[in-house]
Design a protein that fits this description.
The complex is a heterodimer. By secondary structure, chain A is of the alpha+beta class. Chain A is built from 9 helices and 20 strands. Chain A has 2 domains: 225 residues, Rossmann fold (3-Layer(aba) Sandwich), CATH 3.40.50.300; 135 residues, OB fold (Dihydrolipoamide Acetyltransferase, E2P), CATH 2.40.50.140. The chains are: A alpha+beta, B mainly alpha. Chain A: The complex is composed of two ATP-binding proteins (PotA), two transmembrane proteins (PotB and PotC) and a solute-binding protein (PotD).
Chain lengths: 369, 299
Amino acid sequence: MDERDSVGVSIRSISKRYGSTEALKDITLNIEPGEFMSLLGPSGSGKTTLLGALGGFVMPSSGSVWVGDQDMTYMPPHKRNIGIVFQSYALFPHMSVGENVAFPLRARRLPKSTWPERVKQALAMVELDGYQDRGVSQLSGGQRQRVALARAIVFEPRLILMDEPLSALDKQLRETMQIELRRLHRKLGATVVYVTHDQREALTMSDRVAILKDGELVQIGAPETLHNNPKDSFVASFIGDSTLLPVTRIDEHTVQLGTHTLRSAKPIAPHAELLLAIQTEKLLIDDGLHEPGINRLPCRVVEAVYQGDSLRLFLELEDGTSISMRQPSHHTALQKIPPLGERLSVVLHPEDTIIVPRAGCAPPATNVA
Amino acid sequence: MKATAINNNYPHVSHRDASLGYRRREHVLMLLLMSPAVLVVFVLLLIPLGWLIGQSFYADGFSLEHYQRIFTEGIYWNTFWVTFRISFIVTLLALLMGYPIAYAASILPRRWSMLVLALVILPFWTSVLVRAYAWLILLQRSGVVNESLLGVGLIDAPLALVHNELGTIIATVHILLPFMVLPLYATMQKIPSDLIQAGASLGGTPLHVFMRVFFPLSLSGVLAGMTLVFVLCLGFYITPELVGGGRTVMASMLVSRNIQLYSDWGAASAVSVVLLICVLAIFYVVSRLVPLEKILGAK
């Protein structure tokens, strides 16, 4: 399959109500052909409901779902030709691996003689060729995951949906599978919509990430955009590892944090409640070699936790506010770290000084006074 | 894992002995607590059963006379044949009627499924005797069923619906239906809805998904329900006695006649023992296919 065959998805102001609760609130989202799009959000954010609307298991209360130039809003699931990988894998326990993968071929009444070759190809894609006759219960979690994947791609769908497919795997396997899924996505060229609550996973794999919260689309963008330009404090706290501190705006590029004045390279719009989002990896220990324009924060080391790949320092600013930072654990960096209780100063580059409005807070126009 | 490995390497480690002693004391305590129940089972079940088996071999001393009669006389053969045939038909009909009911209950929203199940179970709480008489009234020559069919013009003369095998089958199916529906429902309810959704997403029409996924996964429930209904039907008494009108003789009726008419406890016991062996044989065969706990609804 090549790029031409993949298909775009257009979700047009979809809402879904269950009784009095709104699971989805007027969501509009366009997914490019061949794109790897993640739906990221905490549980209850509506990401699985949205996936259900794409798969045909959830009838939206209003709005429509288009795949390519086809309105699929009310099309039954079996006519949609969308491959779905379920969180539970949903492998048929009474069938062998080969029968599971052949299920879509049988359902489509394709000639039986073509099955073995296609099953073989699909299993080869996930590196499980030769497992055709195994029972599902004989497989490990990771292998089941791959079989579910092979089953979802064997009929060459132009759109593949994945509902937290890696959440049941251990960390190491999950990371291997993330890379493998990316590779598979490139090879298939199909459009992928991927649901996850793991921000790191979303950032690792996706071309773009859509962040959902309480049934609303909060922000959509490339991983880097979300990381460096979060729209509000929800995105800032959800993406990456950050500390949020209340600040007051002085002018377009300056805010006040306690007794300190910080400069931000990005213009700051006036807002009732502004927060500084400090990502742990953006803080550096001041060794006196940094440029003069950089933000400096004097503080005290409260705790240092060695985490193998990095060292996490818990710091206290002069007014008692706690922040934390992460240092790489190589020798040069470790040597710069002062003992507990020692005073030092950390620096934050204006480019890394991210000021966000508090999520769900009133817009500035109402706060003229 | 690691802890066991260490324990196996050092069996003399003292805390192991202590825990062993503790466990032994606990076992003794559990046995003591269970003893009233064990005693009840022993007194009320095992002793009478032993006595029953003893009786079946007794006719002025040890004798195989009763068994000889069962296996040689036509009336016995005939009765067992009728009993098995009726049980088989009842089981099939209960399956045909029970499967859709259990299926509906398993896919409906919880509130509705509870209603469906309640409707199945509710008659279960009224006396078998009352229900048998109810069927007699409904199915008799001038009963509601015959009158309605005559009124609509579907038949010209009343059908013989009771006092025969047909009546026995109708009433028995009704009474045994819950024993089909409940194990079926228990099995169906455990089929993950993910599998059905997956089947649909992979291109299976609802019928295809039902035939290839849902039905095969419900088979253990089918087997459980069929076994329960069949076994219960083999020994069914009140309903066939009343609704069958004495003309359809089932094995249990043979037992009662041997006692009531001939006071022949030995012959009655022998019939019971043969029935019991049939039931155990069925359970044995089925338990090779499905775990017994599943059939009895423990799992």
